[in-house]
Amino acid sequence: MSATTTLHSVSVRPALPADGETLGELDRSTWSTLHAVLPRPQPPYEPFFDERHRPEDFLVAEAATDVDGKRIAGYIRLVQPTSLACHAHVRQIQGLAVAVWARGAGVGRTLLRAACTEARRQGANRITLRVLGHNTPARALYASEGFAVEGVLSGELFLDGSYVDDVLMGRSLAP
To answer: What is the per-residue pLDDT for 65?
Structure first.
């Protein structure tokens, strides 16, 4: 969060098709080797939403600020990990981004909690995610919200000239 922007409140809502351009800009502005498994996006940019990344798979955090009112501060993507019926009780987080100006204000935590609530609403009793081994800040956030490391695929990915662990984390959604 910049010194000139004060974040007053954060609310979470389902994404709308009209959010695509803003979410695409957010996604590109937060690209980092800390979490990215794909190369940095280059123009011309693909649409943020497509048949595999539908608006209904995303929750959007909106922040009220003192500078420009309400604006999108982040998103989280929540999907069923596979289409198998035996996997219907699980939801997986497949993307989380927080705008640079909104970091450190609890937006990521708010999105994680909203994703757990939404997963429960959808009938899930378990939620999982994958995170790069070197992404210490994300791993700490997930652990603080009850996610435990359930497996490590050592050297699973080759990114930017180095082998990187793929860390599998999960938690129960039972009350």
So the answer is: 78
